[in-house]
Amino acid sequence: MTWAGFAQQLINGISLGSLYALVAIGYTMVYGILRLINFAHGDFLMVAAYLGIFGLAMFSLPWPVALVAALVITGLMGALLERGAYRPLRRAPRLSLLIAAIGASFLLENLALVFLGGRPLPFPTPAVFAGSFQVFGLYIPRLSLLIPGVTLILLAGLFYLVGRTRVGMALRALAHDGEATQLLGINVNRLISLTFVLGSTLAGVGGLLWAMKYPQVNPFLGVLPGLKAFIAAVLGGIGNLAGAVVGGLVLGVLEVLLVAWFPAWSGYRDAFAFILLIIVLLIRPTGLVGETVMEDKL
Amino acid sequence: MQPPLLSIKAVQMTFGGLMALNNFSLEVAAGELHGLIGPNGAGKTTVFNILTGFYRPTEGELSFAGTALNGLSPPAISRLGIARTFQNIRLFEELSVLENVLVPFQGRSRLSFWQAILRTPGFWREERWVRDRAWELLTRLDLAHHAMEPAGSLPYGQQRRLEIARALAAAPRLLLLDEPAAGLNPQETAALMALLQDLRRHYGLTILLIEHNMKFVMHICERLTVLDHGLIIAQGAPAEVRRDPRVIRAYLGADAGA
Amino acid sequence: MDKSSWWHRLCTFLSLGLLFLLLLAAHYWAGDYYLRLLNTTAVFITMAVSYNLINGICGQLHLGPNAFVTLGAYTAALLTLTPAEKQASFLIAPLVWPLSDLALPFPLALLAGGLVAVLFAYLTGFPVLRVRGDYLAIVTLGFGEVIRVLANNLQTVTNGPMGLKGLTPYTNLWWSWGVAVLTVATVMGLKKSGFGRAMQAIRADETAARAMGIEPFRHLLLAFLVSAFFLGVAGGLLAHLITTISPTLFTFFLTFNLLIIIVLGGLGSTTGAILATIIITWGNEWLRVVEEPLDFGTFRLPGIPGLRTVIFSLLLLVLIIFYRRGLLGRWEFSWDWLFRKIQGRPDGG
Asked: Is the pLDDT of residue A186 over 90?
């Protein structure tokens, strides 16, 4: 592979990895606080993408309005999901919570199928986001720079929120020890709702950017990116924000490079993330963070 | 003199830099009833967790009836003949009382999957034997009339007894009891003392127990080990230990100085 | 053997005889539609009961039963197709030797399907059973995905996205219900043995079970293998029931359906899994109406694809939130229970 070809693929990989990272953040935040794999999280990509289509194509809103509206609704739907399906199960066995998440995921996907049909809809990417330019003989789509850029800004904002504000402190306390936080008189329910709003909004951003990158929107759009983002979160050490970003980037770049280097294997790219996960778990059975599973509550 | 049944030599246990046990040594002779006491957080349950293989000691040697315990898994240690109860009762709550007592037999069963599935005569023979033993234990611990109830529905005192019955089903030579009298009323505590003496005689048990109830400990134990902040501060007969100034200080804390 | 267990055996034999007579009646009088539904029911009983062994009895959330069904289906299908048929359908790339020349009778092909699933379960058991909880769920889900991707891409083995067509419909009432009965007998027998008690102890409290001498890995692996075998055989039956298989048949959606069945029946109850399978497979048939176009003569109502799944996912959510025990909780049918009911005595214990 030439240097230019490699650079080109690397840029593609970083842009894909940034999308994984955006989605992985939501998984990791929810897992950190509720110890739940929010299976429905990936479906918020799809929700945001459809909402984007409504705003842009059906109501012909100016693009900033349409996209922000899509994100706001996606974020609220995330909170609604927690309220309706997960909150009643907070004291139930973890298995039940996970099953509820699977049910919620299928519900979202099939509601979309019922109301919007299975035929993929084209995403009307606003002109500002389309097009490409050439640098050093490299052909770079504008989105390939935009995606990592947006990701970087949002993550900076999120890290500021979690690391430097009072709300962020409360969030970290909650992730560390839920019961103690309750004792401190912090409104745990509101914090959890906030987590879901933040996570779903980020997934929504991921969904809108995904739909611009691959402008065919269907009800099952979020399934694979969601699963891969979850794997990215595990690779980076679930519950760890920076880890989720690193995991997302690593997974995105490896996946793109693998296909670039071994074109014959391109059919297997969707299995790659899982094989990576299995290898990681073989080496570190509790994931990269290595929290003890068996001996915690003796 | 006979070698001790259990011997712990210079065990050290640290959790992320925190010293939970420091230079802990203990020998328990066969047939002895030994008490492990000390203030909360002294490291008593850590000793049990190390003995049963749930924690790997940072340093030190453990041996039981001539076999080294270091590196063995909890099930392997159980099969060697060490059984335990838990401080915060950990029964198989949804299983019936009888099933709770049946479970440990599977740990030692030599029956193959095929024998079990094909219901061979060997399977029925073992099943009958195991059930007889389980009923015997339930009867001895006065739980037989609750045999078919879910373990989680028993009142607290009976749950404590069921934990002992379940531990005995593992056919131990050494029984580790973690606060067996916690939460029991005086009558129940007295009954427990009688029960332990009876079990010990009948099954030839060696018992190591952790307990906060001093009356109970002083009355029933032949020897005591007192732990404070991971260190042994006294070891010996109850009467001696009771007079040890360091023990008095550890227990009474600031009051002793006042 | 005491008198009561002799009675139990007699009752079991009599009810098996009754099932035989019912199937015989169906064999002669039922139309194609009902025959197919009866076969589907039996295959789903096999799948649900063996899936429940892991999720309900051992308490581990396994999300990859579709992997084992796929393996069994492809293995059995590749073995019953004749070399000539295989040559005709593998258009893009020829099938690898020795599969290209191999042809086995249906029963042996089913067995082979089960055994291939067991082999895969054995190999994956080591990474899978080292983790618990959410990790186990996601790893098993991963295996399901990996197998689907393989089925899509291993052109020289699976014929890729085109799948395998024109299988002989060997699956009949005797095979499907025979396997279902065998599965139920095995899982029930396992549950009522030391192995099953150990598995339930692991579900209830793994730490306590280990302290009592139970080796979790050994028991979970056993459950994993038994479950894989029957899922594989069920895959073979399914393949020879619908006669055309392709990777799209075995997605996570299949796992989702099995999950609904065992949650509805009550996690851990084999009786519940059977009951729920009947409700869901027949309910699914009745609900087919909502997804098909309705013709009222003057106007046509278009069908709504996905509506059944919406209904089922709502059902799953409602069950898990409000009625976590499902229909039967962990209760199992027993002759003792029936005799007591008949004699009007209250449930003892």
From this structure: no
> Is a pLDDT exceeding 90 seen at residue C66?
yes
Asked whether the predicted pLDDT for residue B191 surpasses 50, the reply is yes
User: Which pair of structure tokens corresponds to residue C68?
Assistant: 């084992």
pLDDT, tens digit, for every residue of C327-341?
888 888 888 888 888
Mean pLDDT (chain B) is: 91
Subunits with 3+ Cβ pairs within 8 Å of B are A, C
Between residues C252 and A138, the one the model is more confident about: C252
Q: Is the pLDDT of residue C22 over 90?
A: yes
Provide the CA C311 distance to its chain's centre, in angstroms. 21
In this predicted structure, what is the pLDDT of residue A291?
45
Tokens of B155: 């009142």
Domains of chain A: 3-283 (1.10.3470)
Shortest alpha-carbon distance between residue B6 and chain A (Å): 22
Q: What is the average pLDDT across A156-164?
A: 89
Determine the average pLDDT of the residues in A174-183: 74
Query: Which residue of C193, C227, C230 to mutate against B (max B Cβ within 10 Å)?
Result: C193
CA A241/CA A233 separation, integer angstroms: 8
Question: Which C residues, 167 through 226, put their C-beta within 8 Å of a C-beta on chain B?
Answer: 186, 189-190, 193-195, 197-198, 200-201, 204-205, 207-215, 222
Give Cα A88 to chain centroid, integer Å.
Answer: 24
Question: Domain ranges in chain B?
Answer: 1-81+172-258, 92-171
Whether C53 has a pLDDT exceeding 60, the answer reads: yes
Q: How many CA atoms lie within 13 A of A141 on its CB side?
A: 18
Which helix (H) or strand (E) covers residue C75, if one does? helix C65-80
Averaged pLDDT for residues C186-195 = 96
C-alpha separations of B77 from B64, B80, B81, B169, B170 in Å: 9, 5, 7, 14, 11
Confidence band, pLDDT 50/70/90 cuts, at residue C299 = low
Alpha carbon of C47 to those of A93, A203, B219, C170, C178: distances in Å?
A: 24, 35, 59, 18, 13
Query: What CATH number does domain B1-81+172-258 carry, 3.40.50.300, 3.30.1330.100, 3.40.50.720, 2.60.40.1670?
Result: 3.40.50.300
- Quickly tell me which residue has 């983790």 as its tokens: C131
Cα B95 from Cα B93, distance rounded (Å): 5
Give the Cβ contact number of residue A140 at 10 Å.
17
Specify the 3-state DSSP secondary structure of A286. coil
Under DSSP, the state recorded for A123 is: P
Q: What's the CA gap between B41 and C128, in Å, rounded?
A: 36
Of the candidate ranges A187-191, B120-124, B172-176, the one whose mean pLDDT is the lowest: A187-191
Q: Do residues B62 and B11 lie in contact, with contact meaning Cβ atoms separated by under 8 Å? A: yes
Q: What is the ipTM of this complex?
A: 0.93
More confident: B252 or C229: C229
Are C232 and C115 within 8 A, CB to CB?
yes
When pLDDT is cut at 50, 70 and 90, the band that residue C260 belongs to is very high
- With CB atoms and an 8 Å threshold, state whether A102 touches C306: no
Answer whether C207's CB lies under 8 Å from A298's CB: yes
- Do C214 and C220 touch, CB atoms closer than 8 A? no
Paired strand residues for B13: B21
Range A261-266 average pLDDT: 84
Contact check, Cβ <8 Å, A227/C139: no
Shortest CB distance from C259 goes to which of A99, A104, A297? A99
Q: B104 to chain C nearest CA, in Å?
A: 5
